[in-house]
Amino acid sequence: MKRKLRTLMTPFEAFLTWEAGSGVILLASAILALVIANSPLGPAYEHLLHTEIGIGTGDWRLEMSLVHWVNDGLMTVFFFVIGLEIKREFLYGELRTKSAMVLPVCAALGGMLVPALLYSVINLGTPTAGGWGIPMATDIAFALGIMTLAAGSAPVGLVVFLTALAIVDDLGAIVVIALFYSSDVSLTALGIGLAFLAGAFVLSRLRVEFLPAYLVLGLGAWLAFLASGIHPTIAGVLLGCAIPATTSLDDSVLHDGDHPKTAGHHGSLLHKLEEALEPWSAYVIMPIFALGNAGVSISGASLDFASPLFLGIAAGLVIGKPLGIYGSVRILTKITGAPLPGGASPGQALSAGTLGGIGFTMSIFIATLAFPEAETLAAAKLSILVSSVVAGGLGATLFQVVKK
Predict the structure, then answer these.
(1) Are 76 and 337 in contact (CB under 8 A)?
(2) C-alpha angle 85/273/22, rounded to 5°?
(3) 55-59, 167-171, 277-281: segment of lowest average pLDDT
(4) Least CB-packed of 2, 70, 245, 371 within 10 Å?
């Protein structure tokens, strides 16, 4: 697998390497958080997470709990990196042409709609009906990590497909968060935030590569979004999409058949930031998020395997994800006559779709927005953890069965 991955374009190869490698640390962080939360240190852990931390002074003071600084502040950097990745993929990666975009986009849409539908049907008329966005997400770090370990013989094209799918999946989750998990929106504050972001896009259009200018505009947008009721991480995504992908010294685009390449891309601010921040996002921010959010008291959560919440999340991630992803791929390839991604076998494609059921990071993040009640949120987190483990185990097992 590693030898094959070296044949990919450098930014994409680096992305795969960081994401796949971070899965182990992410898993260790989640396990550590669970152990601490269910040990004598549990009360101290909860107290630390809810400790108020403020910056500034007087009317210019911003105060939030530690867990909110992680979820609303630190995770904005994570979403900023996602914005960079999305822009890079649509300009230079696997989503740069309509033909290359169709399969992962359709698979991602199927992988979002089917789980959301299953969850909604199971939770119809219940207090937890609002959590339909939870099983829509795929955790690319865990999915790629397991594929790398369990599917060494998988075609590179299938790995690329899963990664492109997860990026579209992230984009879909961002849209869902912005539209459905924001409340009491202040149009004035939102307008101010959008004005800051518009300034960043203007600078990008002018090929301005002065990073401090983007940081100032990004901070202004983040504060405005925080006050507006729209989750501030959305500002991070949009700012990432505003970062220039070409240099001021190179406005020309070279075309090599169907593969457009911008000569200055590797020297662009987008490339430099992605290269610098991807390791921090994968190995620092995501593990800290796991430490702050995966620590659930199992006895306190009263996980009910027969509850609509658990059944909805489990059905969405374990059944809905592979059904939506693989079903969309099979329908599209039947209609168009195109081969499966990377020339994969049906079994390998189904296995990859099953790994798409590993929700974790983004699913937990959406759960924190959907359920402000502590007990419901704890049950949702445990449901996500259990379902993600089952989906990961099934995907790895299927790859081994197909290999044999």
Answers:
(1) no
(2) 60
(3) 55-59
(4) 2
> Which of 308, 296, 313 has the alpha carbon at shortest distance from 366?
313
Q: Which residues pair with 52 in a beta bridge?
A: 65
Give residue-wise pLDDT tens across range 100-151: 778 888 999 999 999 999 999 999 999 999 999 999 988 877 887 777 776 5
Q: Report the alpha-carbon distance of residue 177 to residue 233 in Å, rounded.
A: 9
DSSP state of 370: H
Q: C-alpha distances in angstroms, 35 versus 96, 239, 380?
A: 43, 36, 18
| DSSP code string of 286-345 | HHHHHHHHS---HHHHT--TTSHHHHHHHIIIIIIHHHHHHHHHHHHHHHH-PPPGGG--
52 burial via Cβ count (<10 Å: 0-12, 13-18, 19+): exposed
What is the rounded CA–CA span in Å between residue 283 and residue 280?
A: 5
pTM above 0.85, yes or no: no
Q: Are 303 and 310 in contact, with CB atoms under 8 Å apart? A: yes
Q: Which is nearest to 323 in space by CA: 349, 305, 344?
A: 349
Spatial neighbors of 197 by CB under 8 A, at least 6 apart, are 217, 221, 235, 238, 239, 242
Q: What count of residues does the chain have?
A: 404
Q: Tell me: pLDDT of 391 over 90.
A: yes
Cβ–Cβ < 8 Å for 93, 11: yes
SS3 per residue for 187-216: HHHHHHHHHHHHHHHHHHHCCCCCHHHHHH
Per-residue pLDDT at 230: 84
- CA distance linking residue 118 with residue 122, whole number of Å: 6
- Cβ(282)–Cβ(89) below 8 Å: no
- Token duo for residue 191: 């307008």
Confidence at residue 348, expressed as pLDDT on a 0 to 100 scale: 86
DSSP run (H or E) holding 64: strand 62-65
**Where does 10-123 have alpha helices with state H?**
10-37, 42-49, 66-68, 75-92, 98-122
Check: CB of residue 119 under 8 Å from CB of residue 38.
no
